[in-house]
Amino acid sequence: MPIPHLRFELLESRHITDRFERPKLPKSKFLNYSLTTFFEEALDEISADVPVNGIDIVEWMHEVTADLIAMEAMATTHENNGGHITFTSGDGKIPGVKLDSRTYFRSDTGKTVASRGYAILITPYGEYKVPNPGKLTIAIRDFLLWAYAKAGRWSYQWPGGILRFDRLPILSRLSRIRDLASSIISGFSAPTFVYVNTAGFSPFESLDLSVSSSKDQTIVLTARDPGNYANKIFSTKLEVSKGTSEHKIRIISFPRVSPFVLEMQPEDGVSTVFKSMSIFP
Predict the structure, then answer these.
(1) To which H or E segment does residue 7 belong?
(2) Which domains does the chain have, with CATH numbers?
């Protein structure tokens, strides 16, 4: 059954510093580059290391490698908070972008994807149209996935990527969230998801949220039903300035605030770090 109606009430916002505070990240486990939540930074490092020659090294190769770096950076911050993300990026035509045997892009040429206006993503819950150029969040039952497509009108090969949220970080009165990042991937900002495990016996809970943002932006906060992610319970917008800010939010639901999944969607082109999250009565 869907959980009862729930809403957020912003009590206070306070700007702390104009400086964007990056998460501490190691080098990539898979590639010989530094992890970063910025696609452009990864692209610059890769381009300097292996320049495009127009023969065996072409631009889309740099782009998907930069995407993998940004995806791994985001996945690392989720692992540090007890979550797990499976991700992939590559050429949507050959060899194709495949997360597993049931989750992959249909192998079309870039020209086909661009002229049609979308890429076709196959999932265990059916086919979905990912806008081109664009992104799509899929939330159904216990399945959370984000994908993007970026095919050119005259291209054969095209960059595409998939993130699947296999295990969500848990926020409770006993466990905080720290340095949870959303990366810029091919110019698109991916969402983050947190399971908010409330005590479940009070109509009020308080959420303290510290956010560091690379630009001024509006973050969309959405509460989803943990029994079926497709059910949106409530959605609101949080205005965030460049740098680090702190926000106090009251969560209200009658007769009590039941556990829910919190989706946080930054604006495209903005790197966002949720420096800390805590919940209390």
Answers:
(1) strand 7-17
(2) 7-20+168-280 (2.60.120.260), 39-166 (no CATH)
Hey, what amino acid is at 207? L
pTM over 0.85: yes
Kindly give the residue spans of alpha helices, DSSP state H, lying in 152-205: none
Helix crossing, 39-49 with 59-80: angle to 10°?
A: 130
Bin 61: left if φ > 0, else alpha if -120 < ψ < 50, else beta. Answer: alpha
Give pLDDT tens digits along the chain (281 positions).
Answer: 556 688 999 999 999 999 999 999 999 998 889 999 998 898 899 888 887 777 777 787 889 999 999 999 999 999 999 999 999 999 999 889 999 999 999 999 999 999 999 999 999 999 999 999 999 999 999 999 999 999 988 789 999 999 999 999 999 988 999 999 999 999 999 999 999 999 778 899 999 999 999 999 999 999 999 999 999 999 999 999 999 999 999 999 988 899 999 999 999 999 999 999 999 98
